[in-house]
Amino acid sequence: MKNNFTYDYIIVGGGIVGLSIAYKLQKKYPNLTICLLEKEKKLSFHQSGRNSGVIHSGLYYEPNSLRAKNCVNGRKQLVEFSKFHNLNYEITGKIVVATNQDELSRVKGIYERGKLNGLNGIRIIDSHEIKEIEPHIQGIKGIWVPQSGIIDYSEVCNKFAELIKKINPKSSIITNSEVISFTKGIDCKIFTRNESFLSKNLIFCGGLFSDRLAKIDKVNKNMRIVGFRGDYFKLNDSAKKKIRNLVYPIPNPKFPFLGVHFTRMVDGSVECGPNAVFTFKREGYGKLDFNFKDTYDALSYQGTWKLFFKNWKFGLNEYRRAFSKKLFLKELKKLCPKLKISDLSPGRSGVRAIALLPNGEVFDDFKIIKNNRSIHILNAPSPAATSCLSIADHVINLIEN
User: Fold this and answer.
1) Segment (H or E) for 249
2) Domain shared by 141 and 30, yes or no
3) Which three-class secondary structure state does DSSP give residue 146?
4) Given this model, what pLDDT does residue 3 score?
5) What are the DSSP E strand ranges found in 131-242?
6) Which residue segment(s) compose the domain that 295 sits in?
7) Crossing angle (nearest 10°) for helices 302-310 and 292-299
8) Radius of gyration over every alpha carbon of the chain, rounded to an integer in angstroms
9) Are 338 and 377 members of one domain?
10) Counts of helices then strands in the chain (DSSP H, E)
11) What is the DSSP code (8-state) at residue 259?
12) Which residues contact 168 (CB under 8 A, 6 or more apart)?
């Protein structure tokens, strides 16, 4: 087993959160030696490269929560960073649409929350204004959010990696290096399947496996990560004109998901989705993927069953849609009635890391814990990609304090 020299920091996880922390830390302290370890063959392989590519505004989140504060600050930093480095992004704006009376009753509350989160320029719009923005979308009322946009988060990740190496050539970004264990002594020692590394400090950005890394470090996390797969469809070339930019439904506060929505991507394609179904493998992107350990971890946890019992009707409907293009279309037609089944082609899928508490409630904020010489990003749900540079600032503040 090869043993590398001692780094100042080892960061575990090559998604956008891990890379943004490495970049910000390297930029502020150029002489630090940083090693980032990613288990896959390339960076941003999982959640960071499989999300909807949306620059989120900060509309939905509880005011003064870490999600709200970091999303608003992170969005501004991300746009500035992308503009400076000529990355592919666009501020498109989005509409959040109410299609029935139940959703209509929630419009004002979401609008007020957006105002509290500092979103200037958002406004409530009527059905005629919805048509002016998105001619094929039907709704009673909506919210126009000018701050939202689209970006390629994998491109952002690769730019972070490039800049880290440019600032300090002694720093390393190593792929195909899955961390299997680590110890803390005079130095921290991390073991991968083929190598071991020494470091003075550790930062864990394990995404779907954040809870297992925290368990090795004896962190009292009081929650467990459970995976939920989201499937997307794409609009065929002849149907792309039916969506101009971003169209979202009014979210149901009973469920921890935003619902199926339409997203124009930076390459000009249009995605619609995702659904949200329990997955039997944490990184299982196929409908029938299975992993015994992941399944046992989820189904032996009381929080999972409590979530199921509270939301069994919602879960059943999501599973039915996962195997039925016709039912998926029915959900999409609530927003875009002229959509036809021939407009849809199967798209990609992703898996969300949902942090479940023992009572079955979803922990819906960022959770970052310092434990001696290690920091754990235990929970980084959406809008973590949008917030990544602000999350990095938060982590650096923890380090400096």
Assistant:
1) strand 246-249
2) no
3) coil
4) 53
5) 141-145, 149-151, 172-174, 179-184, 188-192, 195-204, 224-235
6) 224-244+252-362
7) 70
8) 21
9) no
10) 11, 20
11) -
12) 26, 30, 31, 32, 33, 34
Torsion angle, CA of 42/44/45/47, rounded to 10 degrees?
170
Rounded-to-integer distance, Cα 52 and Cα 284, Å:
17
Q: Are residues 116 and 174 in the same domain?
A: no
Structure tokens at 217: 């470090």
How far apart, in whole angstroms, are the C-alpha atoms of residue 147 and residue 122? 8
pLDDT reported for residue 314: 85
Calculated CA dihedral for residues 121, 123, 125, 131, nearest 10 degrees: 30
Q: What is the DSSP letter of 148?
A: -
Give yes or no for a contact between 200 and 187, defined as CB atoms under 8 angstroms apart.
yes
Q: Can you give the pLDDT at residue 124? A: 98
How many Cα atoms are found within 13 Å in the side-chain-facing hemisphere of 26? 27
Percentage of the chain lying above the pLDDT 70 cut: 99
Single out the residue in 146, 162, 177 at which a domain terminates: 146
Residue 394 token pair: 């938060």
Residue type, position 132, single letter: E
Asked if pLDDT for residue 1 goes beyond 70, the answer is: no
**Do 155 and 17 touch, CB atoms closer than 8 A?**
no
Within a domain: 59: no
Give the global pTM: 0.95
pLDDT tens digits for range 59-95 = 999 999 999 999 999 999 999 999 999 999 999 999 9
From the list 340, 338, 334, the residue with the least C-alpha distance to 139 is 334
Query: β-strands 224-235, 246-249: how paired?
Result: unpaired
**Domain final position from 130, 146, 162:** 146
Whether the pLDDT of residue 352 is over 90: the answer is yes
**118 class by beta-carbon count within 10 Å (0-12 exposed, 13-18 middle, 19+ buried):** middle
280 vs 317 pLDDT, higher one: 280
Average pLDDT over every residue of 380-385:
95
The DSSP bridge partners found for residue 190 are 182, 197
Do 23 and 160 fall within a single domain? yes
Query: In the numeric block, which tokens belong to residue 207?
Result: 């995404």
Please give the backbone phi and psi of residue 386, each rounded to the nearest 5 degrees, phi first.
-60, -35
- CA–CA separation, 37 and 14 (whole Å): 7
